[in-house]
Specification:
The chain is mostly beta strands. It contains 1 helix and 27 strands. The structure holds 2-acetamido-2-deoxy-beta-D-glucopyranose (5 copies).
């Protein structure tokens, strides 16, 4: 999550004066498939096997679903969580079963009330989704991204933007502990300093291959750390490698080639990919770093479509003003 009101106001007034996006071509084709009528801040996205999008918001305790195949798509409520005001990260950890992080979140400072952070499971394998609480993160104040770990159905990893850490949660027992804590995950503020504005360290995180990839909003960095799992415990198997410095990075999607499609505030989608010699580079594929582009306004996260071959080349990007934008990644060879 990341919201700059000043840029938001600027972008909206810009939008009002230039109603068409056509005069500002971007390298990849995009289509706005949904605009929340009340500009609901969309925080994160996961995609069901059927292709339906699951959407979370830091401004709502309701998990929403959106059908990207419908002409005038609407947000349909799936479940509203008690004792919370926000849902941040969401990840599928077993086929058809999604975990998500809820909290009572102060969106002025991006910090959750101590004791309010919980991890829930929503199982879509029956006609009516079955909801149960997995556990809690009683010491966390910085709930943000969430990822599952391939071939480890009992493991969830949750970003803590305040502590600069990654929590491991056992999906069966609900037990949790800090698995990795690193300066590369920290916000540039000491943990006991009073936060008066949005200050996020680690934000989005995803496991691909043997690596945990993560974005640090405050440092503007995109990095990865090799993982190992010993007796069910996830730990760093080496030091953090910084792959790119991009700007105000949020969440991202990783494609089948291992490239990252990163939502960057105020208005870009950046592709971060390896080049010869072991280094990585980046390319804005939608919008630009100035944010004076009407296509993506405060992009927050991205996920590839599912359901058919065509959909796996479509990247769905959520934004802080309630947009869901479909990006056709075919030209860049993007595929889930
Ligand atoms: C979608 O919305 C537009 C504008 O309100 C309307 O003209 C059109 O009939 C709708 N299409 C469908 C399939 O509902
Ligand atoms: C919500 O909080 C109330 C009061 O603390 C508690 O009784 C209730 O069990 C909580 N609900 C959930 C779903 O945790
Ligand atoms: C959010 O935090 C700020 C800074 O500590 C505080 O002034 C404000 O009252 C808090 N808002 C809510 C709704 O608690
Ligand atoms: C965006 O802002 C930059 C820097 O101010 C400017 O050079 C560029 O022309 C602007 N682009 C558009 C589409 O207005
Ligand atoms: C996606 O882009 C490719 C290449 O530009 C194009 O051939 C294809 O028709 C596009 N697909 C959709 C659904 O827009």
């Amino acid at each position: 999550m990341f919201l700059s009101l000043r840029i938001l106001i600027y972008t909206i007034s810009f939008l009002a004066s230039y109603s068409t996006a056509l005069s500002f071509p971007t390298s990849l084709p995009t289509q706005l498939i949904f605009q929340s009528p009340d500009s609901l801040f969309l925080e994160n996205i996961a995609v069901r096997f059927s292709g339906e999008l699951l959407l979370t918001s830091v401004m709502s305790p309701t998990l929403h679903m959106l059908n990207p195949f419908s002409v005038n798509a609407t947000l349909d409520a799936v479940h509203t969580f008690d004792n919370s005001t926000a849902i941040t990260g969401i990840a599928e950890y077993q086929p058809g079963i999604f975990a998500m992080v809820t909290s009572v979140l102060n969106t002025t400072i991006g910090r959750a009330a101590l004791g309010s952070v919980a991890v829930w499971s929503v199982d879509f394998n029956s006609a009516v989704p079955v909801v149960h609480k997995i556990g809690a993160l009683p010491e966390s104040r910085g709930p943000n991204g969430l990822t599952s770990v391939p071939d480890e159905p009992d493991v969830l990893l949750a970003a803590d933007s305040a502590a600069g850490a990654v929590w491991q949660i056992n999906t069966r027992t609900g037990a949790s502990h800090i698995a990795i804590q690193d300066p590369a995950m920290s916000p540039t503020i000491s943990s006991n300093e009073t936060v008066s504005a949005l200050v996020f360290g680690i934000n989005g995180l995803h496991v691909h291959g043997r690596f945990l990839y993560f974005a640090n909003s405050q440092l503007g960095t995109f990095s990865r750390v090799p993982l190992k799992i010993e007796n069910g415990a996830v730990m760093a198997a080496g030091s953090v490698q910084q792959l790119a410095t991009i700007g105000s990075v949020d969440d991202f999607a990783i494609d089948s080639q291992g490239r990252a499609w990163v939502a960057v505030h105020p208005g870009a989608l950046s592709l971060v990919f390896p080049v010869a010699g072991g280094s990585w580079t980046q390319l804005d594929v939608v919008g630009n770093s100035q944010g004076n582009n009407s296509i993506l306004i405060q992009p927050t996260s991205a996920a590839f479509g599912r359901g058919n071959l065509l959909q796996t080349q479509m990247l769905y990007v959520t934004t802080g003003v309630g947009q869901v934008v479909r990006v056709n990644t075919t030209e860049q060879g993007g595929e889930f």
